[in-house]
Amino acid sequence: MFLFHIAAFLILIICISWKFRIWLVEAFPVGCSVLVLFLYVLSFFRILSFSDYAAVAIVAAVLVYAVIAGRKGKVHGRNRQNVFRFAMQELLSPSALTALAMAAIVTACVSAKLVSWWDDYNFWATDVKALFYLDGFAGRYGNVAAEFGDYPPGTQMMKWWFLHFSPKEFKEGLMFAGYYFMNLSFLFPLLRRLKRRNILTMAASAAALWLFPSAAEVFWCDGCCADLTMALVYGNFLAAAADWKRHGQPFYYIRQALFLMVLVLVKNTGFIWVAFGLLFTYGYHFLKHKMEDTEKVERRKDRRALFLVTLLPVLTEISWLGFCLMNRRVAKLTGTAIQMATGGMNIPDYHEGMVKAFAEAFVKWPLHRWNTIAVDLSPLSLYLLLLLFVFVFCKCHVLDKRTAVYTGGFLAATGIVFYGINLVSHLTIFVVETQYLEPFGMVSSIERYGAPFAIGGLYLLAFYVLEECRKKIGLVLCMLFVFLTADYGSAYRALYGYRSGTEEIMAEREAIIDEKGEKFLEAVEAGQGKPTGRVLYLRDISDISWVRNTYLGFEASPVSVMHGNIDASVWTGQDIVNALRDAHADFLYVDEIEGDKEALFDGLLEEGEFRYGCLYRVEDGYGRLYQAEGCLAQSGTAGP
Rounded mean pLDDT of the chain? Predict the structure, then answer.
């Protein structure tokens, strides 16, 4: 079935390329956006696998067209020949061959990659594993990684698509292949200036494309960092808005709307970059209309189109937030932000240390966090370098003066605003996280959360160079910058070097998940893809480990697990009932605790004895406990 999916995607981007007369590599991000949004809609109805039928239908439609068009006379036959000739020319173009080869090679290289990054265990891998087994979004109180419930699912859609290539087994390597493919799709347009099938040039371009993000962000090398994807989508939007030669065409506005719709679904901070993107496109349009002295009728049409570009991502954001509201999905940081806004959060007095660490990291520390054999750019040096590039472009007539002033002013202003937001967030929401008191921890945050500004800005400037410099010099300049500033070690580790650490990752998992945890996973039938519902897993107060809980959540997915700890000297049976209600649990599982078991649990059962290590089903508004299938516990009624 995966061959049908791949064929259907290729047909989609060929149709986009044919319809709007663009390079095939330029159609990749558009097709990727369409696929993400299509899967997003299916996820609400838990019918992601319906995409199988859609893929088969697309392939079948093309085959039918190929047969029927040839029987309808010379005109239709000639049209069919033109379409297929165009498709072959595009597929065999140097840029498309390089892109397709990169997609295949990267997928093969990361096939053995395992989840190792903390944020992947916390949400990005745990959540997509649930999507894989549930065939869509979980119902109310059924989502895994409950502390990150309102995190948007944009990147998860493409990961699911690749995971679905092996529908009977969850393969972590396919998850990473989907993540990297989505990122590459938004990088592929930079290949459009490849004109000849020169193996060395194609290989060098592919290497530069892979290395490019590592100049300013390397979290993507070890995990599924959504900030990089957000950066690449944002950069593509800026380039799409600046692609003025397509202004007035439907494609010009469709592409911008699609990118913004995906951008708000990549991460919950995507709205910030949507706002920056809209600011750029509105200002850019105003500038161009003024320069070209556009008629009022055309300006009015343009404003109506831009209104739709603005409206569609807003509706997309509302659709996700509305779903989260109905299904009680909320993130821990969202709650923290609300507490801060209402004055209900006690903020430690780390302000001086945070400001000092931010200043040192911003001025001195490499964006990719450690020294490399290449040029190490600090956040400040890259910020200044972006403005210097705009100045040089103006002097070299790559940009006209007014466009250069506008672009430089936009980058300067949005950079100041973003880095100001970043500093304020560390003085408020993240102030309790003391790792940011050190410059290394602080530059890690600046690098990661600042990726949309740094990489998005670089992407826009690369677009200008490749668009205006018709000769090879534009491509050479872009490649030279990448090769001088890239983090080669991290980029190699992401692609192949990770293999030396896979055994260590598996050993770490086995060490963290103790024997009690293994019994719990067996009880909820982890790894079999059977959705059990939300389980409240209770341990003794002396046995607290949020690291182990996070790893258990990943292994148990798609089962939603809430964790708690019992102090037998204080708790009563009513406290157990209250814990079940607070967790909105469908099941209860308790490990052996130190203290009087009868006082805590036997009161919850009318008959029999409560047994540790058994899965109990909770019913009647958390008023009754029943033994789950395979459990030896006796059924009975819970306390009041």
Answer: 90
- 3-state SS assignment for residue 360: helix
* SS3 state at 346: coil
The predicted structure's pLDDT at residue 503? 95
pTM: 0.94
Residue 630 has what pLDDT? 53
Residue 500 within any structural domain of the chain: no
What is the Cα–Cα distance from 194 to 620, expressed in whole angstroms?
Answer: 66
End-to-end CA distance of the chain: 53
DSSP state of 487: -
Domain count, the chain: 2
Residues 6+ apart with CB under 8 A from 422: 358, 445, 446, 449, 450
Domain with 60 in it: 2-495
- Does one domain contain both 517 and 459? no
Structure tokens at 407: 């672009």
Q: Which residues contact 396 (CB under 8 A, 6 or more apart)?
A: none
CATH number of the structural domain spanning residue 602: 3.40.50
- Asked if residue 506 is part of any domain, the answer here is no
pLDDT attached to residue 170 = 96
Q: Which DSSP state fits 136?
A: S
488 and 538 co-located in one domain? no
Chain Cα centroid distance, residue 447: 16
CA–CA dist 372, 369 (Å, integer): 9
In a domain, 502, yes or no: no
pLDDT at 395: 93
Question: What residue ranges of the chain have pLDDT lower than 70?
Answer: 69-78, 332-350, 470-471, 531, 606-608, 620-624, 626-640
Instruction: Note whether residue 570 is domain-resident.
Output: yes
Identity of the residue numbered 613: G
Say how far apart CA 413 and CA 383 lie, in whole Å.
11
Q: What is the pLDDT of residue 639?
A: 40
Q: Are 176 and 161 in contact (CB under 8 A)?
A: no
Residue 272 CA to residue 263 CA, distance in Å, equals 10
Cα separation, 14 vs 89, in Å, equals 11
Does 489 share its domain with 518?
no
Contact 136, 128 (CB under 8 A): no
CB 561 within 8 A of CB 512: no
For residue 10, the one-letter residue type is: L
Residue 369 backbone class (left: φ over 0; alpha: ψ -120 to 50; beta: rest): left
Considering the domain architecture, whether residues 228 and 85 belong to the same structural domain is answered as yes
- For 86, list phi and psi in degrees, rounded to 5: -60, -45
- Could you tell me what percent of the chain has a pLDDT over 70? 91
**SS3 assignment, position 210:** helix
Specify whether 522 is located in the same domain as 475: no
How far apart are alpha carbons 218 and 613 in whole angstroms?
42
